[in-house]
Amino acid sequence: MERTRTSSAVSSGIPPAASVATDATHFANKPRTLTTVLAGGTAGLCVDLAVYPLDTIKTRLQNFSHSIRHSGQLRLFAGLPVVLCGSAPSAALFFYTYETVKAKSKEHGHPVWLTLGLCAGISEMVACIIRVPYETIKQRAQSQPHVGVRTVLSETIRVDGWAVLYRGYLSTILRGLPFSLIQYPVWEMLKRSLREYNCRVSPSSESSGELSKKQFALCGALAGATAGACTTPFDVAKTRIMLAQVCLCL
Fold first, then answer.
1. Does one domain contain both 197 and 101?
2. CA–CA separation, 133 vs 163, rounded Å?
3. Are residues 29 and 125 in the same domain?
4. What is the recorded membrane topology of this protein (predicted)?
5. Cβ atoms of residues 38 and 92 within 8 Å
6. Last residue of some domain: 140, 166, 192?
7. Do 218 and 118 belong to one domain?
8. Nearest C-alpha neighbor of 91 from the set 49, 143, 62, 152
9. Alpha helices by DSSP H, 51-168
């Protein structure tokens, strides 16, 4: 998915005519911010829904104290209501922050690698403010398929207090930062390489520098697979921290 670029503010002290033009551009580009938020939120929710059964299996495999045999049932969509509530806002916040930081970094002329690193790192830390609480409840519900989400939430807060919802924040950051720092630079690098390839193959075509939907999908798949393979140990640690002291007999 090609993310929408947000407009950047222009410093003060410019001529009146340029100022008017800048204001006009600013207001004209306001819908782009909304597009980024809506597109990011929708994409994040669609991805989470599509791979949710696999995510449930992954959580149970990473949780050494639980297995499907222990629960006696699959229920691969256990905890799904939590994702429906939290996935879209978290993804929207991530992509909004990503595009905002990206625009500001380009305005200051930072190197590409630094720009992408800043975008990924800052976006991950901001998005985790929303992601960590719902991720904690989601994984606890996934590991206890015989218990409803409402019961998991109420018992978690009753036993461990509200602070437990952010107990996995640091571990999520330690997993999410390397993931994003790998995924998004790889994503951008692959897109740039494919654009150059398209230009070489069809130099006379007006759309030679554009990527097809299949090429976008390939870039995303390779970037995500690379980041996931490199950060699996961190993901296992994050899951076990979030599920620490979970009662399986609620």
1. no
2. 10
3. yes
4. Multi-pass membrane protein
5. yes
6. 166
7. no
8. 49
9. 52-62, 68-71, 80-107, 112-143, 149-160
Q: Tokens 């107990």 correspond to what residue?
A: 167
Q: What pLDDT, on the 0 to 100 scale, is given for residue 246?
A: 53
Segments forming the whole domain that contains residue 197: 168-201+209-244
Place of tokens 């870039």: 219
Which of 166, 192, 217 is the last residue before a domain boundary? 166
Distances (CA, A) of 249 to 18, 70, 75, 151, 241: 67, 11, 16, 12, 19
Structure tokens at 84: 């429906």
Using alpha carbons, select from 175, 183, 181, 178 the residue that is nearest to residue 118: 181
**Residue carrying structure tokens 């994503």:** 187
pLDDT, tens digit only, all 250 positions of the chain: 444 433 444 344 444 333 333 333 443 444 477 888 888 888 888 888 888 888 888 888 887 655 445 554 567 787 788 888 888 999 999 989 988 888 887 777 777 777 777 888 899 899 999 999 988 888 888 888 778 888 888 888 888 888 888 988 988 888 888 888 888 889 888 999 998 888 888 776 666 668 888 999 899 899 999 999 999 998 888 888 888 765 444 4
133/96 same-domain check: yes
122 and 178 in a single domain? The answer is: no
- Same structural domain for residues 50 and 98? yes
- Say what the pLDDT of residue 248 is: 43
Q: Confirm whether 249 is domain-assigned.
A: no
Residue 11 lies in a domain: no
Q: Is residue 68 part of a domain?
A: no
